[in-house]
Design a protein that fits this description.
Glutaredoxin
């Protein structure tokens, strides 16, 4: 299958209005990476790109379908009989239905929810401490992932 991104490039399908997406972008940059940022609401992926991303994530279109703040319910997308192609068509017609952020790196493609998920696919380590916008620590001063207690 054709991959649409250079193998050495990190790309984030980003919504700047989304806190999780901003946190993921911050973690990418904290690793010293200048990613290719695709504001997918302004520049949606093509059908082929979306299908490729879903395949590389090893999931289904339903797995990346966003409900909150979208026309999901109005469009009846909960219907379990809807085929994969119908869900992809809905996401292409209404890009807000694509959950975010999706990050593609040389190590894989992931829907990065929660934002710490991106740490599993970044090709370079974190360069220092990082906290989410809400103040929750993600990476310590040594660049190591903070393990949550609980």
């Amino acid at each position: 299958m054709r991959h649409f991104l250079p193998s050495d490039q990190v790309t984030i399908y980003h919504n700047p209005a989304c806190g999780t997406s901003r946190n993921v972008l911050g973690l990418i940059r904290n690793a010293g990476i200048t990613p290719h940022v695709v504001e997918y609401l302004k520049t949606p992926p093509s059908r082929a790109e979306l299908v490729d991303l879903i395949a590389r994530m090893g999931c289904t279109a339903r797995d990346v379908l966003r409900r909150k703040g979208t026309p999901h319910d109005t469009l009846g997308l909960d219907d379990p009989t809807l085929a994969e192609e119908a869900l992809i068509a809905a996401m292409l017609a209404h890009p807000i239905l694509i959950n975010r952020p999706i990050v593609a790196t040389p190590l894989g493609v992931r829907l990065c929810r929660p934002s710490e998920t991106v740490l599993d696919i970044l090709p370079t380590p974190q360069r220092g401490a990082f906290a989410k916008e809400d103040g929750a620590p993600v990476v310590d001063a040594r660049g190591k992932r903070v393990i949550k207690e609980g």
